[in-house]
Write a structure and sequence with these properties.
Layout (H helix, E strand, L loop, with lengths): L13 H26 L3 H8 L1 H4 L15 H17 L1 H12 L5 H39 L11 H18 L2 H10 L5 H6 L1 H15 L4 H49 L1
Helix pairs in contact: 1-4, 1-5, 2-4, 5-6, 6-7, 8-11, 10-11
């Protein structure tokens, strides 16, 4: 078996590793800044788009408010910055992968690439699900629960913090299949053990939904149910991945035995 190179092997001095890390961090920051410069002229339009699910449900003539003097500038800027980080995620993940790749086995490298791609797509899918499905249901529920005689006027800063929290929560929640496959591939747990823990995982999904969403049953359920379903998908895929790993291991063993026998004949 080829010796596994350490991330800090003798082939490359420690200082050189730090320089490489610095260069990759600078490239990540540069990617974020470039995207931010592109988004800045559209910051106000982006906030209007983000506020759409709430404003479409609010009574006609009702507007959002800005409590602080500088909120009308800083809140759209904050949104543009966060979106820049989200959109630069493929670049960030690529440079993180490129930094650690020299210290990985060949089979580990082949595993990381699809996992990085799938985790990025799942993160974006989670945010899309939150925007188009969860937001209209949550805001509709909140508006219906508003007492008579009370006008709901939302501060743009608090609204942004609220929706970013939900977007991030759903983005992370949709990473469950990737986490499940990794746990199985690293032999930390088996698919059979995960299947036995299914009742605990379902309860845990609702606990996570309770902690990461507003205190209403709709948003908690909309987060918990996808976590559970995505766990089932990850469990199914992990079983397939384990079978492929076993077949690959058997082929490697057979090839090694054949090589040893061939050497003996020579």
């Amino acid at each position: 078996m080829t010796e596994k190179k350490s991330a800090f092997s003798k082939d490359m001095p420690f200082v050189q590793h730090l320089l490489e890390l610095r260069d990759r961090l600078l490239k990540m920051i540069l990617a974020i800044m470039v995207i931010l410069l592109i988004l800045m002229p559209f910051a106000s339009d982006l906030f209007t788009l983000l506020a759409g699910p709430l404003q479409e449900l609010m009574p006609e003539g009702t507007k959002m408010i800005a409590i602080d003097v500088a909120s009308s500038f800083f809140i759209p800027f904050k949104l543009a910055l966060v979106l820049s980080i989200f959109l630069a995620m493929p670049v960030i993940l690529y440079h993180l992968w490129a930094f650690v790749a020299p210290g990985l086995y060949k089979n580990e490298k082949s595993l990381i690439s699809p996992l990085l791609i799938s985790s990025t797509l799942l993160f974006y899918l989670g945010m899309t699900f939150a925007y188009f499905v969860v937001f209209p249901l949550i805001f509709g529920f909140m508006l219906n629960m508003t007492p008579d005689g009370v006008e709901m006027t939302t501060d743009i800063g608090r609204y942004l913090d609220f929706v970013l929290k939900l977007l991030f929560a759903f983005g992370i929640a949709f990473e469950v299949p990737v986490a499940t496959i990794l746990l199985v591939r690293m032999d930390i747990v088996s698919p059979e053990q995960l299947a036995e823990k299914r009742p605990h995982i379902i309860v845990g999904a609702f606990v996570i939904g309770m902690l990461m969403t507003p205190p209403d049953m709709i948003s908690q359920t909309l987060l918990a149910v996808p976590i559970w379903l995505l766990f089932e998908i990850g469990l199914f895929l992990s079983r397939i991945a384990k079978k492929k790993k076993m077949i690959s291991t058997e082929d490697e063993v057979d090839a090694e035995i054949y090589r040893i026998e061939d050497d003996k004949k020579k």
